[in-house]
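Query form — protein Protease/transporter

QUESTION: What is the three-dimensional structure of this chain?
INPUT:
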Amino acid sequence: MSTAQSSSVLVTRVDGTITPVIADHLEEGLRAAGREGHAAYVIEMDTPGGLLQSTREIVQGFLASDVPVIVYVTPPGARAASAGAYITMSAHVAAMAPGTHIGAGTPVTGQGEEASEKVVNDSVAFAVSIAEQRGRSTDFARDMVREGTSVSDREAARTDVVDLVASSRGALLDEVDGQRVVVGAQGAEHEVVLNTADARVETHDLGFFGEVRQLLASPELAFLFLSIGTLAVIYELASPGVGVGGVIGVVLLVLGFVALSVLPFNVAGLLLLFLAAALFAAEVLTPGVGVFAAGGAVALVFAGILLFRGELGVDPAVLWPTAVAVGGGAVLAGRLAWRARRAPATTGHEGLLGRVAVVRRVEGETGQMFLDGAWWAVRGRTAPVAAGQRVRVVEVAGLELLVDADDGPRNEQEDRPWTPD
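ANSWER: The structure tokens for Protease/transporter are given below.
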């Protein structure tokens, strides 16, 4: 038996869904707590659940940890539901604040439906093995998975689901001070005595980029970003403009791939996503009756269904409207790009063709007129020009404009008297 000599604890706050980002963060926290010699690693938790694979990774790390792990469900009103219940039960010390609850560990699919019996049985075995190793209630572990049982803080403490109820972090650290816990991986276990009373608290936060990754760890966001970003980039390439659509599209694609980097995905779903992008590109570049867009929308639906592994999935309430909207957007983008390609040029010399202006002065057979902020030399194509004559540009010959007389209605600016420079 040894005594933890450090007078400090490392504290991490876990709010929201358990994702690979949270699993990596807690694993990093365990390493930091061991490296820096903290008396314990405290996780303050409030979670509705999360990914089963990420939960398994966290639990495996806690069960093999050489640093005492304390999970504290807090603040009042918080919960350790589903994945949170597994994680709480795997800690060396499990505590809850008054007014919190734990349980409801039945696994569900990405569409919110109860998982298959095979998955449920596997989860029951997982929960019971955690309870057996930590000396907690195996009956609750079994019931929370099969029946979705959830209990309050007092009931959890009374039935050996957790070790104690504490009103604050300070009260928790004072109460567990001197408690003996067994740490270390199987075959290398050893007992330590917690030295946590009046311990100095150091925090271990996700940080800005970790918070961003956690925010993006959503199948719905990943699917939306990839779908809309692809359409924006395709339209920008088909009809180049000021670049706003392209910039927005690239930003959305980067965010989408960042989301994919923290979520388990299937290559088949990604390939279907690329197929959908290719079909949308075909619709924008060669607009027709919408066949390519329809095919792209169908490919996008199957991409959303197959893109993520395990219990993850894109919510149908997001999947179907996104596929329809992006498909319709591809048809519209194709029409707009086709119209833009057929529109007359409005910049460069070609943009001067068909423009109407008034000849201001004439010297010999050549006149001058003011057009688009510049003076141009003009020459009549079939007859000499005259000062004050209204003409239309029909050809650009170097720096000289060839014009024909125009008899259309005059506007106020053309009738305004001309003042020589």
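ADDITIONAL NOTE: The chain has three domains: 2-209, 218-342, 349-415.
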